[in-house]
């Protein structure tokens, strides 16, 4: 298969696999995103519910306290011993009164308590009038406090519509009390409204005074008092407290309830400070909702999703701070692993394919180069043997030259074949271990003669230098392999630097960090950077390159590096040497 076809097939397979993986990834991510969104929505909903619970816990005690407050606390003062039975009796001089809790109540969330009487008049237990104000100022409140509350009560008169409130407030069964009908009401307007017959009112007043006079009489025994109390008049007064309801009137929040006394509807309640209520609600759940918003719940909004149970207020959560961050999705982790595996596999296959194609191309070039290299000596040998065999060469001198040429070509051919066979053995890992311990001086002397002869054939001069610290050192190497490596390096120097002005080939031996370094340098044209990158790759010469360069198939340096590394050393090109080229053979010291 041609390289282009191989690469096109690989890219086509990679495109199909990538498309399948992309589609699968898209579907799985979409499913995982929906799951994560649902999980987060559930976690946020749970967090919002927890926040609502905390907010309700913040204001529910306030609402519960107001709902449980007895009706008589909406009067500034009341007699303690007859809170439920003598509430509306005309007070006598010297009688002990109890101030209402509302008179001195200080609550940042409540602006004012108020009471709307059956005749639509407004009062407040925190803004008493008449002699009750005098009593409040004497012991409980400052005049400026009462004046401020009175002004706020005047504002409520302009805002609250008693008839509308009575229509809106629910009438469900609540607390119920029955008062004796002989009681007298201190509020003449209220009494006149609920007691249709003025004479009946006067009759009740006289009866109350008479009973009070008898109670002061020592002869009026306790049993008689109990009998009178136990046998009230025929029509007792009924006090019925209806449930407390939170409601919005415009942009103002109220708690209000109906109190029915003898058929007349009182309205009792308080106005809440909505900005401070908002701040209290937000502060109660700030660890969950850092920026909540609130809105009144009116009419059709009564079924809002996030609504407080204690107040008609809906919550807009805003940012929800979850207790724990979402865990890493196993689907995403699996996809990362899958994509990483696919990319690594694609990269590995691509590298293998690239190496295979490159190796195939180099081998094809090698076959072409070997063919070219073999053709020349074989042609020379055939031609000269034919000339000698047919007796066409009569001159002994010419015959001797022909024989020398044939010998040189045979050596060249043998050298080429031996290089190929040695490289094949290295590739298959079958190189034989012939390492021996030998002194550097002996090793160099063994190969120096052969190297000088090779240099002499191209009119080059080999200069050998051994540093004093390396002369007596020993190395453990295969001498034949070292000879082959150095011969290849000197042979390359002779082939590529033969035309240089300086015909020297330097061979120096030095010690370097426990290793022996043999450096071979020529003074020829050197090696350019592009060629240096491919210098140690096998089969790097094509037939055209072999025809236009010095003899060889581009296998020598690759073979030499393999032999050096098989001995535990290395062979490397030394860049930056000018003029010429320089190679270092590193050998392990014994």
Taking all Cα atoms into account, the compactness measure Rg is 58 Å
> Which strand-content bin applies to the residues?
15-25%
CATH architecture of the largest domain: 2-Layer Sandwich
The biggest beta sheet, please? 7 strands, antiparallel
Q: At the third CATH level, what is the topology name of the largest domain?
A: Heat Shock Protein 90
Return the average pLDDT rounded to an integer.
80
- Compute the number of structural domains: 2
Shape: rod-shaped
Number of helices: 16
Query: What CATH first level of the largest domain would be assigned?
Result: Alpha Beta
CATH superfamily of the largest domain: Histidine kinase-like ATPase, C-terminal domain
The SS-based structural class is alpha+beta
Secondary structure: number of strands: 18
Oligomer designation = single chain
- Uncertain runs: 82-91, 181-198, 228-234, 542-549
State the helicity in percent bands.
40-55%
Distance between the termini: 50 Å
Overview of this structure, please?
The protein has 590 residues and is α+β, with helices and mostly antiparallel strands. The chain folds into two domains: 69-272, no CATH class; 353-588, Histidine kinase-like ATPase, C-terminal domain (Heat Shock Protein 90, 2-Layer Sandwich). Helices cover 51% and strands 16% of the residues. The chain has 16 helices and 18 strands. The chain has helices at 3-68, 131-139, 143-159, 162-168, 188-194, 198-216, 222-230, 274-284, 330-389, 396-427, 440-457, 468-471, 479-496, 529-533, 543-547, 556-566, and strands at residues 77-78, 98-99, 110-116, 122-123, 175-179, 237-241, 245-249, 252-261, 264-272, 293-296, 313-316, 436-439, 461-466, 474-477, 504-512, 515-522, 570-573, 582-588. Strands 3, 4, 5, 6, 7, 8 and 9 form a seven-stranded antiparallel β-sheet that branches. Helix 9 (330-389) packs antiparallel against helix 10 (396-427) and helix 11 packs parallel to helix 13. The longest helix is centred in the first third of the chain and has 66 residues, at 3-68.
